């Protein structure tokens, strides 16, 4: 059953199950994000066998065919949401830095279902603590509805979870640059220095930046800024968070510095970006 927003008297089409046995999946009209925290599970997904060991994530759509074949000491939780809760505008920038035609931004792990491995995204040891924390807070917000902005915060954590999973699963091999990318994608809400990144890669800053230039076309700190601003675009479009809250959520100590960097890189202020992106989204 959808959550009833007691502040705004509306239905929010999401559910969180603190105990998920996975036998009733998938749920009608829902995408499901299942976080396996203990044990293991085997099953048949769209006719193909898969195996998941804790810690693990399973991503299912309402159209998936799923059957559990084995469970061993399984402990899991699930967050389930209407696809419309996820859909918003992606911003493919034109030469004048203005947002172009909107399309689905997040949730790529729920598509291209011909590859069952996409439904079981890779989780690194570095990423697990953040994923566990975000999933726990998300579930707590669903149950508590602590204030009128509870649904907005849930979108924030869903964006962070899906964004991190997608970033982790773009990597087909693991090099020192990949280790740093994993670190950035996981820790970007926190203070990060170039020294932190060189320690992660076990190399000096000159070599690290050279490898980043070859791989990403920018320095390691330049990539960190770019990733933070990418997440800011998602939060501006999907949520009603204040600029100060968004700045804090993506690792900026001051909203004034966030606004300065965003305007310099995107060619418009965060407020203008939010206004334009939402107009595009309503015209889809």
Quick description:
The chain folds into two domains: 1-125, Jelly Rolls; 171-284, Arc Repressor Mutant, subunit A, CATH 1.10.10.
Q: Could you describe the 3D structure shown?
A:
There is one protein chain. With 284 residues, the protein is an alpha+beta fold. It folds into two domains: 1-125, Jelly Rolls (Sandwich), CATH 2.60.120; 171-284, Orthogonal Bundle (Arc Repressor Mutant, subunit A), CATH 1.10.10. Helices cover 42% and strands 18% of the residues. It has nine helices and seven strands, in the order βββββββααααααααα. Strands 3, 4, 5, 6 and 7 form a five-stranded antiparallel β-sheet that branches. It has a two-stranded antiparallel ribbon with strand order 1-2. A hairpin with a 2-residue loop joins strand 4 and strand 5. It is globular, with a radius of gyration of 19 Å. It starts with a strand and ends with a helix. GO terms for molecular function: DNA-binding transcription factor activity; sequence-specific DNA binding. This is AraC family transcriptional regulator. It comes from Paenibacillus pinisoli. Keywords: DNA-binding, Transcription, Transcription regulation. Residues 178-276 form the HTH araC/xylS-type domain.
Can you give the helix content as a percent range?
Answer: 40-55%
Low-confidence stretches: 88-104
- Which second-level CATH architecture of the largest domain applies? Sandwich
The total count of strands amounts to: 7
The N- to C-terminal Cα distance equals 28 Å
> How is the CATH topology of the largest domain named?
Jelly Rolls
Written as H for each helix and E for each strand, in order along the chain, the element string is: EEEEEEEHHHHHHHHH
In percent, how much strand structure appears in the residues? 15-25%
From the spread of the alpha carbons, the general shape counts as: globular
Tally of structural domains: 2
* Gyration radius, in Å: 19 Å
The main β sheet shows up as: 5 strands, antiparallel
Total helical elements: 9
| Structural class determined from secondary elements | alpha+beta
The CATH class of the largest domain, by name, is Mainly Beta
Give the overall average pLDDT: 86
């Amino acid at each position: 059953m959808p959550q009833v927003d007691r502040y705004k008297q509306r239905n929010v089409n999401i559910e969180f199950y603190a105990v998920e046995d996975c036998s009733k999946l998938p749920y009608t009209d829902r995408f499901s994000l299942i976080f396996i925290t203990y044990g293991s599970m085997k099953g048949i997904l769209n006719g193909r066998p898969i195996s998941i060991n804790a810690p693990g994530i399973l991503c299912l759509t309402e159209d998936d065919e799923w059957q559990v074949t084995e469970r061993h000491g399984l402990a899991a939780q699930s967050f389930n949401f209407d696809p419309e809760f996820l859909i918003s505008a992606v911003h493919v920038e034109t030469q004048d830095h203005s947002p172009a035609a909107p399309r689905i931004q997040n949730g790529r792990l729920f598509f291209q279902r011909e590859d069952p491995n996409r439904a079981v995204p890779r989780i690194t040891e570095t990423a697990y603590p953040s994923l566990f924390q975000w999933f726990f807070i998300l579930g707590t917000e669903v149950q508590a509805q602590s204030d009128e902005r509870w649904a907005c915060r849930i979108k924030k954590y869903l964006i962070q979870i899906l964004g991190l999973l997608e970033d982790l699963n773009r990597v087909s091999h693991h090099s020192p640059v990949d280790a740093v990318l994993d670190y950035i994608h996981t820790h970007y809400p926190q203070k990060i220095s170039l020294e932190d990144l060189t320690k992660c890669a076990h190399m000096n800053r000159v070599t690290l930046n050279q490898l980043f230039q070859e791989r990403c076309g920018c320095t390691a700190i330049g990539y960190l800024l770019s990733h933070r601003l990418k997440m800011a675009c998602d939060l501006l479009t999907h949520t009603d968070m204040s600029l100060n809250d968004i700045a804090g959520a993506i690792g900026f100590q001051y909203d004034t510095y966030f606004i300065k960097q965003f305007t310099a890189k995107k060619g418009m202020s965060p407020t203008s970006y939010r206004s334009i992106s939402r107009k595009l989204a309503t015209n889809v």
